[in-house]
Amino acid sequence: MIIFLSELQKEHLDILHKQSLQVLVDFCKLTIDYLNNGVNSEKCTVAAEKLGLPLTYIQNLIQALAYLILEGCKHNLSDTDFKSSLALAGFSNEHQQVLLKLYITKKDELSSALNILQQKDPSYQDLTWRFEVQMASRRCNHMIKPMITLNLVVTIPKNFGQNVDYKYKDDKKNSLTSVQINSSIQNAKTASQCQRLINHFLLQCDLPNLIHLTNKLEQALKESKSQHVRKVQRAL
């Protein structure tokens, strides 16, 4: 898969094509800081003064670079595909090597954060159980009725998954193009550590239903390891 950028995004990134490798490295650092902490106006202003460019150009450049890196992580691009995407974006071989190194270094961290931000379904946390036996009732003094009570604990992430719309603004054409970038990586780290809702589900079933449930889960687990499912997972 190759990342195809719009002409406006390519125009924003074109500023880097004319700069040295050190300037590119500095913008890589600014992009990571932007993903971790959001927009830093002070650092962007300093970069704009050094390059003699308007502040809006610098912000658009950082957002375009962040979009390129995040799209690569989102689609789990291989090193070869990501490098090909950089070539299509107009980067030289030397610049490609710098950006590829950034991508390889931050890929795992950003992919994990994106996964947390996009996660909406409950996740398994714990399961406790208690075995109970009813020995008698008002109508029957002698009976054995076994039951199993389950406490299923799942966690649900708080609402960190919504997208934030960042606008690319072109001063010359005065046009806006919306680019979807998820909430900051710092929010994702917070969500993974302490911002998860814990829910308890109390379930009760008899032995035949428990055996049936166990068999179905074992069947699903076995199916998940099949070659067909693995092909589907790779495709997704």
Describe this structure in words.
The chain is of the alpha+beta class and about 240 residues long. Helices cover about 55% and strands about 20% of the residues. The protein has helices spanning about 5-15, 20-35, 40-50, 55-75, 80-90, 95-120, 185-195, 205-225, 225-235; strands spanning about 125-135, 145-155, 165-170, 175-180, 195-205. It has a 3-stranded antiparallel sheet. The radius of gyration is 26 Å and the shape is elongated.
Sequence-ordered SSE layout with sheet pairings:
Layout: H1 7-17, H2 21-37, H3 41-51, H4 55-74, H5 79-88, H6 93-118, E1 123-134, E2 145-157, E3 163-170, E4 175-182, H7 185-193, E5 196-205, H8 207-224, H9 227-235
Antiparallel strand pairs: 1-2, 2-5, 3-4
Helix pairs in contact: 1-4, 2-4, 2-6, 3-4, 4-6, 5-6, 6-7
Task: Summarize the model shown.
With 236 residues, this protein is α+β, with helices and mostly antiparallel strands. It contains nine helices and five strands, in the order ααααααββββαβαα. The strands form two sheets. It has a three-stranded antiparallel sheet with strand order 1-2-5. Strands 3-4 form a two-stranded antiparallel ribbon.
